[in-house]
Write a structure and sequence with these properties.
The chain is 31% helix and 21% strand. It is built from twelve helices and 21 strands. The strands form six sheets. The chain has a seven-stranded mixed beta sheet with strand order 1-12-7-2-3-4-13, sandwiched between helices. It has a five-stranded mixed beta sheet with strand order 17-16-20-18-19, covered by helices on one side.
Length: 469
């Protein structure tokens, strides 16, 4: 993410190297801001592959402390949405936690970080079926599909348009941190984490490239896990901005050229970005006028055996639109599930499972329909009558993100739930599970940790950096 921010911060010089940059058409056709304001999505891709889909060399992976190269996939482990107001003024940036449970078009509800990988895999399979064999074309076109999916999901979640984006992978982060010759950070407590390689004392210190990557990737051993990691990323980017300003990078051609060389291979921007015209805004960002916040979560739950963040999309849209100067979204309409009848069929060997699930759904405003056993199967599903998908999607999300499908045999006004042998009762929303339905229900989802205060960059000239856990 540092390299993506550096791209923003040194926008003026990019005109010289424009033809050497990686660009993408993934943003073509989307809605854009009006009146001179600008929204930029920064995408940190947890990929151990280069732009042609080739594995990074082992010596690079060792420096990144990134395993053997099989980890990470194409998850967008960092998403930061920056708003630059028309006419200048302080910019606002929101970090989107990577494990937020969201609706992903064409998929069941899942972590927001997975939207990129789902779309990329589908696009690559389709391209191969069409006879495309060139690895560069496969990687370029399928990654564009992943970018489009990510942009669509973020637009839907936040309710605001996206004007530009920049994407960077782990190698890009390492290269840009190396070009900066160290970045200052400050820790409230000493840390040691074998997973990320983070091993630092408390207090202020200067990190080299490998240490910088470990610093922003650590989540094990932190009180709030991923949320504390997000706070570290924000603090690190604030320090990068402060260093660029204090080191005179903008007026030193040799320093600028080192940064250009570091990002040419591993940073991708949208093809419509006029980075020369962005120079004024970039200078404002580096002057300390950028404030970071993290979008709130409501708590935690388990979906398909993975921990996810429960969120309130209406609350998030209100927060983002208000902070970015857009009119607040209208109140959420009454749930379309009100009055919908749910038939629950037990295709597992668990006695009383259908009744328990029906009781849970009643607690969320659904009416109890047919409760019965059916032929054994392993996978669960939610079926709906064609044209009546909305209620089915709500049921599916309540039951841990089950797949949905249309079925003309489902009666009008009904949703049919088929519970297979792999269904986990831990996926039920425990806070409303009736305790009289048999064995005690699972514990309620953990409450969200208290929100950390927003990270503000140090005031110009004070020489400080934010201290974090």
């Amino acid at each position: 993410m540092a390299s993506a921010v550096v791209l923003c911060l040194v926008g003026a010089g990019w005109a010289t190297y424009r033809n050497a940059l990686n660009t993408s058409n993934a943003l073509d056709g989307g809605e854009h801001s009006t009146g001179g304001a600008m929204n930029i999505l920064l995408i940190g891709l947890d990929s151990r592959k280069d732009q042609d889909g080739r594995q990074l060399p082992p010596q690079i992976l060792d420096k990144l402390h990134a395993g053997d190269g099989e980890e990470g996939g194409y998850n967008t482990n960092t998403l930061i949405l920056i708003h630059i107001p028309a006419g200048g003024g302080p910019a606002t940036a929101f970090s989107i936690p990577r494990d937020d449970l969201v609706s992903i078009p064409g998929e069941h509800p899942d972590k927001i970080k997975k939207a990129y990988g789902y779309a990329k895999a589908k696009a690559e399979n389709a391209l191969r079926a069409q006879g495309v064999t060139d690895q560069h074309q496969l990687e370029m076109q399928s990654r564009d599909a992943g970018r489009r999916a990510t942009l669509d999901v973020v637009r839907g979640l936040t309710g605001v348009p996206i004007d530009h984006f920049a994407e960077v992978n782990l190698a890009g982060f390492y290269d840009i941190a190396q070009a900066l010759h160290g970045v200052d950070v400050c820790l409230n407590h000493p840390v040691h984490d074998d997973y990320s390689g983070a091993d630092f004392p408390a207090g202020r210190q200067t990190l080299d490239a490998a240490q910088s990557l470990a610093f922003v990737r650590q989540r094990h051993g932190l009180p709030n896990g991923d949320l504390d990691r997000t706070h570290r990323q924000q603090a690190f980017l604030s320090s990068v901005a402060a260093k660029l300003r204090s080191a005179g990078t903008f007026t030193d051609p040799s320093k600028l050229q080192a940064l250009y060389g570091a990002v040419q291979q591993d940073v991708v921007i949208d093809s419509g970005w006029d980075v020369l015209g962005f120079a004024g805004e970039a200078q404002n960002l580096s002057g300390g006028n950028l404030r970071f916040q993290t979008l709130p979560i409501k708590g935690y739950r388990t979906v398909d055996g993975e921990d996810v963040n429960n969120i309130d999309p209406q609350q998030i849209r209100t927060i983002v639109r208000t902070a970015f100067g857009y009119p607040a979204p209208p109140p959420a309409p009454p749930t379309p599930a009100a009055g919908a009848t749910v038939d629950v069929l037990n295709a597992s060997s668990a006695t009383g499972l259908a009744s328990r699930v029906a009781g849970t759904l009643e607690g969320h405003g659904f009416s109890r329909g047919q409760i019965a056993n059916t032929a054994s199967r392993s996978r669960s599903a939610v079926q709906y009558r064609p044209g009546e998908q909305s209620a089915a999607e709500q049921v599916a999300q309540l039951l841990g993100g089950l797949p949905t499908s249309a079925d003309s045999s489902v009666p009008a006004g009904h949703v049919r739930v088929v519970l297979g042998s792999t269904f986990k009762t831990s996926d039920l929303p425990a806070s409303t599970t009736p305790q009289s339905a048999g064995a005690a229900g699972p514990s309620a989802p953990a409450a969200a940790p208290p929100a950390a205060p927003p990270i503000a960059p140090p005031a110009p000239g004070d020489g400080d950096v934010p201290c974090v856990d």
